[in-house]
Design a protein that fits this description.
The chain is of the alpha/beta class and 677 residues long. The protein has an 8-stranded mixed β-sheet with strand order 5-8-4-9-12-3-14-13, with helices on both faces. Strands 15, 16, 17, 18, 19 and 20 form a 6-stranded mixed β-sheet that branches. Helix 4 packs across helix 14 (369-394), helix 7 (187-200) packs antiparallel against helix 10 and helix 7 (187-200) packs antiparallel against helix 12 (286-295). The two termini are 46 Å apart.
């Protein structure tokens, strides 16, 4: 997707590559749809100009995704931009990059352009605006034919409204809507959450009022049931069963009172999965669970054959058997001026003018030639990008493409309108148009190409009897609920150390050797239990036989290990305590701290006991940084402060001990220094 790269990314790539490494860039300048975030298809031409003697160009205009009818439709739309009043510069720029496509995709596919009336009062965020989509889906039934379906729109809020429409008007058609969201967009989930909130805070009148108005009133006869008796009833269930079984119990109760729809069951399964995680971690704090459920964002996924509603930008790189483009009416004119706060003109060769300015009003721009010129260039880029967005949307379809545009108002000056709908209407409309009905929706069929009964070619398979669900807690929830992303943000403090290096250091041979050296030193220290029992020569000899590092790495690591172990201050941490003790070496751990999943490895932990209880704990972490003076030592130690904080918190949680019982130390092996954190 090189056409979506920006200049800063190109500079970064060149810095990483230097003058010696190869760089391969892949993209399509007809798919340049990220100009709003700095994407610059001009970089393609810059690369060609810079390396023109070394580059052989080979155009790729054969589609293996789109069927023949769909490709023919795309060619008709984009081979004739003169059909609308597009400015000549933008048209010329498009024609320079455009070549007609051919297809090696499906040959029995279908494409159509449907026209229907839209009232000015209709809102794109109102689910009922999109009932015609439900009619098309109910007619084709792609989910029953095991086909993927993409409904592609310009705005995420529109996608959410369409998702609600499909759940409302399409029986049992699974749907997933682009983007992360919390699971509190469902009334059944909210009812269970308010039950939990009421348990934790009986005085919360909002929670009590919500429960009084919920379906639970049918069983518990609110407000006749006293608040105190209901609190006792609910709290006993939570204390006895834990989060998972508590939620499962109330789901069953809600199901008895009023059958839950598929989306409610889907959301409740996600809530149960969160509850199971809390139960397994033995976290019983109700407020923590409520906060977790209310703030954790999940990705909706209702199966491969679900109807997926997403923005055109999100669909980039994807393909669907069936695509519907329903919101053309709400697209802006292709030449709508941008309302940017700033206009920038950055010199590409460091020789011309570079400036940035807050955008003035139109008359002022026209009075300043350089500003007017830049404004015109910006507008051309914007129009070009709008054409690319339409192109990307149409070329996501494999077997069927449905495009819906608004009926043209007789008073409209269509010849002067630069809009996607007008481009489609002018280039696709056929002489013999007809009225058609799909479900409860009436359309005018302006264009049809291919087999309009395309979906009949694949019969609906017979429904198989459902498999018996697993009975176990974990089995049932993971069998029923779709996979979502992890709710807890994972941190590995030892890998989050910040230091400044030049970009090409990442690929430098010395960088790899430094990492190998650090691993080697840690491996050697992990083999020492106590210094009094350690045969250093034997440890090094046996380690060298299995280690796969370069010889100079093994040599230097062995020297540093030996010298550090002989140091008086460092040796204290390898001297066996007189009293009872437990030793951890290279011990992996995973804990949850403040809703964060902390992972790491303890290099060395010495747990000292007295009369069977923990007296104190020493946490030791080895560092192989090259340090030459005390100032650098203190600065480097400070950079590991966060890592050692989380490691200490992990030990506090694992052993349930007070903060003052744990001491943390950094051992810098090169200068042979110990720093207490």
């Amino acid at each position: 997707e090189f056409q979506d790269s920006n200049r800063v990314q190109l500079v970064l790539i060149r810095s990483l590559a230097g003058e010696e490494r190869n760089v391969c860039v892949v993209g399509d300048d007809d798919q340049a749809i990220y100009g709003w975030r700095g994407g610059n298809p001009e970089l393609f031409r810059e690369v060609l100009n810079r390396y023109n003697k070394k580059i052989q160009q080979k155009p790729l205009h054969t589609s293996y995704r789109c069927g023949k009818a769909i490709v023919d439709t795309v060619n008709k739309v984009f081979s004739n931009l003169s059909a609308i009043a597009l400015d000549s510069e933008t048209r010329n720029l498009w024609e320079k990059t455009w070549e007609e496509h051919s297809s090696k995709g499906p040959q029995d596919d279908y494409a159509c352009l449907l026209e229907m009336p839209f009232e000015k009062t209709q809102k794109k965020h109102n689910p009922d605006t999109w009932k015609f989509i439900a009619d098309i889906l109910n007619n084709v039934e792609p989910h029953r034919r095991k086909w993927t379906t993409g409904i592609l729109v310009r705005e995420r809020a529109t996608a959410v409204a369409i998702g609600e429409c499909i759940r409302k008007y399409c029986n049992n058609i699974p749907v997933s809507v682009e983007g992360s969201r919390t699971i509190t967009d469902n009334s059944a989930v909210l009812t269970v959450m308010e039950l939990l909130r009421f348990c934790a805070h009986p005085g919360n009148s909002m929670a009590w009022r919500y429960l009084e108005m919920s379906p639970l009133r049918q069983k518990f006869d609110f407000p006749e049931t006293s608040k105190e008796s209901f609190l006792l009833y609910v709290s006993n269930i939570l204390s006895e069963k834990g989060f998972y079984d508590f939620i499962n119990y109330w789901i069953g109760t809600l199901e008895e009172l009023s059958p839950l729809d598929s989306f409610s069951k889907y959301r409740l399964d996600q809530l149960k999965e969160m509850a199971l995680y809390f139960d397994l971690q033995k976290i019983r704090n109700v407020d923590s669970f409520i906060k977790h459920a209310e703030t954790t964002e999940v990705e909706d996924y209702a199966g491969e054959t679900s109807v997926q509603v997403m923005t055109i930008h999100k669909a980039k790189g994807l393909g669907f058997e069936m695509v519907i483009l329903p919101d053309i009416i709400f697209h802006k004119n292709l030449d709508t001026p941008e309302r940017e706060l700033l206009i920038a003109n950055i010199s590409r060769d460091n020789k011309g003018e570079s400036w940035i300015i807050k955008k003035p009003r139109g008359p002022v721009i026209n009075m300043i030639p350089n500003l007017a010129k830049k404004q015109a260039l910006n507008q051309q880029d914007k129009t070009f990008e709008a054409l690319c967005v339409l192109y990307v949307a149409m070329t996501r379809a494999k077997n069927a493409l449905y495009i819906v545009i608004p009926t043209k108002n007789n008073n409209e000056q269509s010849d002067e309108k630069v809009h996607s709908a007008e481009l489609l209407r002018k280039n696709l409309s056929q002489p013999n148009i007809e009225k058609i009905e799909i479900g409860n929706s009436s359309f005018t069929l302006l264009y049809s190409n291919g087999n309009h009964k395309w979906f009949k070619s694949k019969p609906i398979p017979e429904i198989q009897p459902p498999k018996q669900e697993a009975k176990s807690q974990a089995g049932s929830i993971f069998a029923k609920s779709p996979q979502t992303k992890l709710w807890l943000e994972r941190h590995e403090p030892s890998k989050e150390h910040i230091s400044e290096k030049k970009a090409d250091w990442l690929f430098h041979e010395e960088s790899r050797l430094a990492r190998d050296f650090g691993r080697a030193v840690h491996e050697l220290f992990s083999k020492v239990e106590w210094a009094s029992d350690a045969d250093v020569d034997k440890i090094i000899s046996e380690w060298e036989k299995s280690a796969t590092y370069k010889e100079e790495v093994k040599r230097d690591a062995a020297i540093q290990f030996r010298e550090a172990l002989n140091d008086k201050e460092i040796r204290k941490f390898f001297t066996k305590p007189k009293n009872e003790s437990i030793l951890w070496r290279e011990k992996n751990f995973d804990v949850v701290i403040d809703d964060k999943w902390i992972s790491g490895v303890f290099d060395r932990v010495i747990i000292c006991k007295e009369n069977g209880t923990i007296k104190n704990i020493d946490l030791v972490d080895f560092k192989t940084n090259r340090i030459h003076d005390d100032t650098a030592l203190q600065e480097t130690a400070a950079s590991y402060k966060e890592q050692m904080f989380f490691y200490k918190e992990a030990l506090k949680k694992i052993f349930s001990v007070a903060d003052e019982k744990i001491k943390t130390y950094l051992i810098f092996t090169a200068p042979k220094k110990v720093v207490e954190m």
